[in-house]
Amino acid sequence: MGDLDRILGVLSEARRRVFRIAYVLGPLFGAMLLFEIVPIRLRFAGLSIPFGYPWPSPFYNVTAQVFRAMVAWMLPPGVELLNVGVGDSILIQMEIGLLLTLILGMPWIVHEIGAFLMPALRRNERQLLRQVGLPATVLFAVGTSLGLFLITPFTFLLLFRYVAAMGLAPVLGVQDFVTFALLYSLAFGIVFELPVFVYTLTRLGLVRASAWKKHWRGAVIGSLLFGMVITPDNSGITMLMVATPMIALYLGGAWFAGRWERSSVRPGRGPSPAGVG
Q1: Beta-carbon contacts of residue 74 (< 8 Å; ≥ 6 apart)
Q2: Which of 53, 208, 240, 268 has the maximum number of C-beta atoms within 10 A of its C-beta?
Q3: Residues 240-254 pLDDT 10s
Q4: What are phi and psi of 38, to 5 degrees?
Q5: Cβ contacts of residue 95 below 8 Å, gap of 6+?
Q6: What is the pTM of this model?
Q7: d(Cα 166, Cα 149) in Å, to the nearest integer?
Q8: For residue 206, is it within any domain?
Q9: Structural domain that includes position 25
Q10: Mean pLDDT lowest among 111-120, 196-205, 226-235
Q11: DSSP state of 206
Q12: Radius of gyration of the chain (CA)
């Protein structure tokens, strides 16, 4: 009966944390769909400071503003977007709103998940999570930003040059555009987490640093498969643009893992982590 009580206690705590996350993310998601940001400029001490305030607007809302900014930033001039399905415009607003909600609410999500896991972690595991938390957040932000502001616009430019070379009309479905842009940008954020993942597993003693170097061929194949799955087009170009930095980041993580393992070896003793070799 004691084990059952513990299981029920864990499930009850997990439910409480999920509700606490929903209480924050739900209103935030609703605000994305019901309000627009009206830009204004505030003048202070001779300076013009850009600012914005929310205003009710269920149609031209925050997600529509972000969508228009994505179109202006990512697509080459002359490309025409088509609303192929009847509800495409609603679906893309919800997709963008969900993404913005997850990004803005991520600190609260991480806080709640950490508060749920902390009692079950050992002291060294808690210390490791605190050490890798900031690098993981920074790497995800850097990867997503590179994908959103650099790699994705370049990819669209490259692909539509092939369209122009074939003499075809530069037309794109709005649902395909948003899906590609969001998945492709998020893929780079996930890829940039790879060094932290490799380093953390070695620090926890689950995988030896030598194993990462030994299985680099499998990492190359896995990177290509990930690039193939995460990119919705069939050109192969986007797959390589995801897989190439992924392989480099994997090797970088393996190098940092090996460096830590060598520094943790005491004279006359083997490495402290005992994992897969």
Answers
A1: 152, 153, 156, 181
A2: 208
A3: 888 888 899 899 888
A4: -90, 115
A5: 178, 179, 182
A6: 0.76
A7: 27
A8: no
A9: 2-192
A10: 226-235
A11: S
A12: 23
Contact 33/93 with Cβ under 8 angstroms? yes
Separation CA 2–CA 154 (nearest Å): 58
- Give the pLDDT confidence of 126-165 residue by residue, as tens digits: 777 777 877 888 888 888 888 888 888 888 888 888 888 8
Based on the structure, what is the number of domains in the chain?
Answer: 1
Within-domain flag for 245 = no
- CA separation for the pair 165, 263 (Å, rounded): 55
Spatial CA neighbour of 263 closest among 253, 273, 274, 277? 273
Q: Which of 144, 172, 153, 163 is nearest to 238 (CA)?
A: 153
Residue 30 lies in a domain: yes
Cβ contact 257:199 at 8 Å: yes
Q: Which residues contact 271 (CB under 8 A, 6 or more apart)?
A: 208, 261, 262, 264, 265
In the numeric block, which tokens belong to residue 271? 């490495």
Separation CA 132–CA 250 (nearest Å): 16
141 in a domain, yes or no? yes
